């Protein structure tokens, strides 16, 4: 079986992006960490270019599982994203200078798409691996949500395929090694087709 894991180039003035470092390490150690071939792809932080770059690799490798990664600062937890929304609303320009506001990712398409990763099984597995993790209700409205929405809309909603998005924190909060451990656990659960345990992970607001 083949797994595609994507990460992003740096953005917003940062020199590195741990999502790409994590994806790369997973590809180097795929056999050891998940027991299958992992292909890594580095995506541009541009609305125009990110999904086409991932789409090309998915078409080439015909994977069973696709996990897209991106950086989200915040509270130092790995975030398993639950839902992608069909909107672009960029607070800062992307790396090509584009700043779309309140336009759809895919015109005429549904408001949202669910992740098809086993989120709760993954939550339990990542916790057991000792890495701080949560289920997140929003992947934002920037390039990460954009790729997540396009991935689910064009590829990931077909039965038998597993796809979704995981936000990783700064490497200062969770070291890249631990990010690799966490994402490997998610990929293993996805490959297993693990049943979802009844574990509450929502929020009140
Ligand atoms: N994080 C941004 C885009 C690229 C990345 O790593 C986001 O969360 O949208």
UniProtKB/TrEMBL annotation:
**InterPro entries this protein is in?**
Peptidase_C15, Peptidase_C15-like, Peptidase_C15-like_sf, PGPEP1_Cys_AS
Gene Ontology cellular-component terms for this entry are: cytosol
Alphabetically list the UniProt keywords: Cytoplasm, Hydrolase, Protease, Thiol protease
Q: Which residues form the active site?
A: 144
Reaction catalysis annotation: Release of an N-terminal pyroglutamyl group from a polypeptide, the second amino acid generally not being Pro
EC numbers: 3.4.19.3
Write the protein's name.
Answer: Pyroglutamyl-peptidase I
Of which family is this protein a member?
Answer: Belongs to the peptidase C15 family.
Does this UniProt record's set of keywords contain Amino-acid biosynthesis? no
One family from Pfam that matches here is: Peptidase_C15
Gene Ontology biological process? proteolysis
Per UniProt, what is one GO molecular function of this protein?
A: pyroglutamyl-peptidase activity
EC class name: hydrolase
């Amino acid at each position: 079986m083949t797994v595609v894991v994507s990460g992003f180039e740096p953005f917003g003035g940062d020199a590195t992006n741990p999502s790409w470092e994590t994806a790369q390490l997973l590809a180097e150690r795929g056999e050891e960490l998940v027991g299958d071939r992992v292909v890594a792809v580095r995506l541009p932080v541009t609305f125009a270019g990110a999904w086409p770059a991932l789409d090309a690799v998915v078409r080439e490798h015909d994977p069973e599982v696709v996990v897209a990664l991106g950086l989200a600062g915040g509270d130092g937890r790995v975030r398993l994203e639950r839902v992608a929304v069909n909107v672009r609303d960029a607070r800062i320009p992307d790396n090509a200078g584009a700043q779309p506001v309140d336009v759809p990712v895919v015109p005429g398409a549904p408001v949202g798409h669910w992740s098809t990763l086993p989120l709760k099984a993954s939550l339990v597995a990542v916790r057991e691996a000792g890495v701080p993790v949560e289920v997140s209700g929003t992947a934002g409205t920037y390039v990460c949500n954009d790729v997540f929405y396009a991935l689910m809309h064009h590829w990931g909603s077909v039965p038998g395929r597993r796809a979704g998005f995981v936000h990783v924190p700064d490497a200062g909060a969770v070291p890249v090694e631990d990010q690799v451990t966490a994402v490997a656990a998610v990929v293993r659960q996805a490959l297993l087709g693990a049943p979802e345990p009844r574990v509450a992970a929502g929020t009140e607001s």
